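dumping this here before i forget
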Amino acid sequence: MITGKIARKLYSIVALALAAAMVLSSCGGGAATATTAAAPETTGAPATTAAPDTTAAPATTAAPGTTAAQETTAAPDTTAAPETTSAAPATKVIQNVDGSDIEVPTKVERVAAIFGPSYEKVVLLGAEDKIVCDGDFHIDGWPWSNVIYKRINEVPGIPNAHSNLNIEEMLDYKLDLVFNFPNPGTTEALRNAGIAVVPMASTGKVADIKATLAVYAEALGDDAPARAADYAEYYDDIVAKIAARTADIPEGEKKTVYAANQYILKGYGKGAGLTELVDMAGGLSVSRGEEGSSIETTTEQLIVWDPDYVFVDHAGSSGNDSAEVVIDGFVNDPNYKGISAVKGGNVLAVPTGVFFWDSGVQMPLYALWMAKTLYPDRFEDWDMEAELKAFYTRFFDYDLTDEEAQLILAHQDPK
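structure:
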């Protein structure tokens, strides 16, 4: 019989042997050592002293040795994979409306919308949340924008953005992209400072509005291109529908139009999109033969032209008189009392809404409104109020009330 003292000694020997086996195994001695050390288990130790056998489990978990082997062979496969993957390019090159190349970031998160019509474009493209600054004139230049846009009241405005842009101030905003005026000087200065720029560009066509929107969309990425495509579809549909109703009007029966820009004697020549817009609406621009895009005319010339309609847009910008003041001065000037538009009460302010209709994304609405004004019988069934509401819902994500739509069409501010 094995006495308790002898059993305890055997227990100690077995434990020491097992511990030694484990140390040797972890140092590369192999599992065979652990197996040899376990031999005392065959000495018939009493079942009650079999507890040490359960502590032998670590010997069978010689995992440290095998794990090390696995780590040695597997490491090269897992760590090498990322090195073979090419990083996405940081920039991409897109083409502006005039065909010039523009380099912009592939991922745009922080935008400056300092060009006048740029804010409404970015809103239409679903990216207003990316605007971190705009021009100071955006703050209160178009009261309806303060109602309809979601963030314009909290976005800081850059002073003198259109005339004397402070490049150092722009750097403080950590911008990815600036939508700029057609100003080569500030565009170059911004690019030299490391900021990507999309300057306004034009071919003088009304369709530039959808082409420009497509350029903005490509620069912004995400779902902006899909929204730009939706707008282009709308634009083409409106233009086609207007043409279908006005195409058969004889040249001699077309209503004559003078479109004024800011004040009465500033208009549009044959190089202007507005001249094309008048034609698109079925009218005939009296200044279509004048050279250039923006023109200055005289009282005498306007009297000779004798337009049936005079439309005033873009008034009230840059500190100029409002359209109402411009029109009041025009119709009450004795020099103009013989003009057909004055005599017929057809001197009208073009609706505005979130931005001027003569240079923004609402231009298709301008064409429709003009066509309906010139030829009410041909467009009697076309509800301008309903069209305006549908446009704002579709492109600005804002549901105008009946009253709001009526106020916009009457060229009135929000109440």
